[in-house]
Design goal:
Blueprint lengths: L1 H16 L3 H23 L2 H17 L10 H19 L27 H10 L2 H12 L4 H8 L3 H21 L1
Length: about 180
C-alpha cells in the first residue's frame, strides 16, 4: 500500500508539473495541515503561518520542474516552508546572540524524561522562550536538523547554533521548573 501512496503522490506531482489544477489542489490537500504545523512551530502566530503556507505552495508549484524525486515531495516542500518561515523571522529582526567565549566548552543540559516534566508545561515553556531560543530548539529537537544545517539556515556560525541550543535548553528547563 505504501508503494501505491508513493506512486499516487508521484503521479500527482507529475500532473501538477503539467499544470493540472486538480492535481495541485490534491497535493495541497495532502500536505497543507502538516506544513501548517511546521510553520506554526517556527512562527507561533497563526496569520503569519497561514501566509507562509500560501507563499510556500505558490513557490513549490512554480518550481516543480526543479523537483527530481531525490527526496519525497513532503520533505522538499517542508524545506521551502522552513526557509520561508526563517526568512519571515529575519525580516522581524530575529537576533541570535553569538557565543561569548568561542573556545569555551558549553555545559550540556539533559532534559529528563517526560515523567518529571508535563508535556503541557514543556509546550508552555517553549512559548515563553525568547524567539531565537525557540527557533533553535524547534529546528534541532522537533524538525531534526543538526547544528551545521541550522547554522546554514539561520546564517549563523555552527558554534552559535550549539551555544544557543544549550542556552535555550537551560532556559526551557528553568521555565518548566517554575511552572
Amino acid at each position: 500500500m505504501e508503494a501505491n501512496v508513493r506512486f499516487t503522490h508521484q503521479a500527482l506531482v507529475e500532473q501538477s508539473k503539467e499544470g493540472n489544477r486538480t492535481a495541485q489542489y490534491q497535493l495541497y490537500g495532502l500536505y497543507v495541515d502538516a506544513m501548517f504545523n511546521v510553520a506554526m512551530r517556527l512562527l507561533t502566530i497563526r496569520e503569519d503561518a497561514e501566509d507562509i503556507i500560501q507563499e510556500s505552495f505558490v513557490e513549490a508549484f512554480k518550481k516543480l520542474d526543479s523537483f527530481r524525486f531525490d527526496s519525497t515531495f513532503g520533505a522538499w516542500l517542508k524545506r521551502i516552508v522552513i526557509n520561508k518561515s526563517i526568512n519571515h523571522l529575519k525580516t522581524k529582526r530575529l537576533v541570535f546572540s553569538s557565543l561569548e567565549n568561542e573556545g569555551e566548552p558549553v555545559e550540556d543540559i539533559e532534559i529528563e524524561s517526560t515523567n518529571s516534566m508535563d508535556v503541557e508545561k514543556i509546550k508552555i515553556g517553549l512559548g515563553q522562550l525568547p524567539e531565537g531560543y525557540k527557533q533553535i530548539i524547534t529546528l534541532y529537537l522537533i524538525e531534526g536538523y543538526d547544528h551545521v544545517e541550522i547554522a546554514e539556515i539561520l546564517e549563523i556560525t555552527n558554534s552559535t547554533s550549539k551555544s544557543q541550543y544549550h542556552r535555550a535548553k537551560k532556559k526551557l528547563v528553568q521555565i518548566v521548573n517554575e511552572l
